Amino acid sequence: MNNLLIDIGNSRIKCSLSVNGKMSRFHSVSYDKRKFRKYFQSVLHHYQNKFNELYISSLDKKYNSVIESLSLECKINFISTQSLLPLKIDYAKTLGSDRICSAVGAFKKFGKQNNILVIDSGTATTFNVISDGIYKGGMISAGLKTASEALLNKTTLPKIVLNSKISLVNKSTKSSIISGLILQHVLFLEKAVELYKNMFKNLFVVMTGGGAEVIGKKIKGVNKIELELVLEGLNYIALHNKKIQ
User: Has residue 245 been placed in a domain?
Assistant: First the structure.
């Protein structure tokens, strides 16, 4: 069985072809929300005639009807709390599919750990706790890029490109902005990890998402960085569904 795994985020569509459970190299495209249909069709064209089913994590449910309107000749699986999942969910039905998938990915990869914290650093930064095979909940805050855009849009400060180089004493406005934004987010995440570790014994911390590339290695207490955990979670869900069926 060939499954096309698709992670539709706030600014990018990431995908991978899974053949008998083995994932191919990740493919990623930026998209314009006003032209979602066009961009999604380009993704399908990239994998034309190579898949039998779609497994999709989508942050905006309005895209679901657009995808269904394409009249695809395959089964479409939109992930939600109602999906067949390899872990239990102790959370409201509003839980986002990205959080579900990253939690499943971490649970399947690091299931020997009784307590797992998944930090997904994207447009939003989410904290997700899995304890004894049950998704318990977490927190949501502004992501690094979102905080950057909010600061620059509300001031006359110059535009910057975030990187991991920081200093407490900077000699330019741009480097001052970058250092301030990065350090603010790093210190927040480190304190959050500390508080979670006080709550959950032997907590194993996994970080994923675009922000993990920039600051993941700077955060004390992070045990593992897994950049494509949502797609991996989608793959595990697909394999679990096939096993159940």
Answer: no
Domain around 149? 88-233
Tell whether 111 and 206 lie within a shared domain: yes
Report the candidate in 1, 15, 4 with the shortest Cα–Cα distance to residue 54. 4
User: Which of 195, 225, 7 lies closest to 96 in space, CA to CA?
Assistant: 7
**pLDDT tens for the 245 residues of the chain, in order:** 899 999 999 888 999 999 999 999 998 999 999 999 999 999 999 999 899 999 999 988 899 999 998 867 889 999 999 999 999 999 999 999 999 999 999 999 998 999 999 999 988 999 999 999 999 999 999 999 899 999 999 999 999 998 888 999 999 999 999 999 999 999 999 999 999 999 999 999 999 998 898 899 999 999 999 999 999 999 999 999 988 77
Whether the CB-CB separation of 34 and 27 falls below 8 Å is answered with no
CATH number at residue 212: 3.30.420.40
Place of tokens 């990239």: 46
Task: Tell me which residues are annotated as active site.
Answer: 98
SS3 196: helix
User: Number of structural domains, the chain?
Assistant: 2
The count of other CB atoms within 10 Å of the CB of residue 16 is 22
Is residue 242 one of the residues assigned to a domain?
no
Based on the domain organization, do 50 and 164 belong to the same domain? no
Answer yes or no: is 197 within a domain. yes
CA distances from 95 to 13, 103, 161, 237 (A): 20, 11, 31, 16
pTM score: 0.92
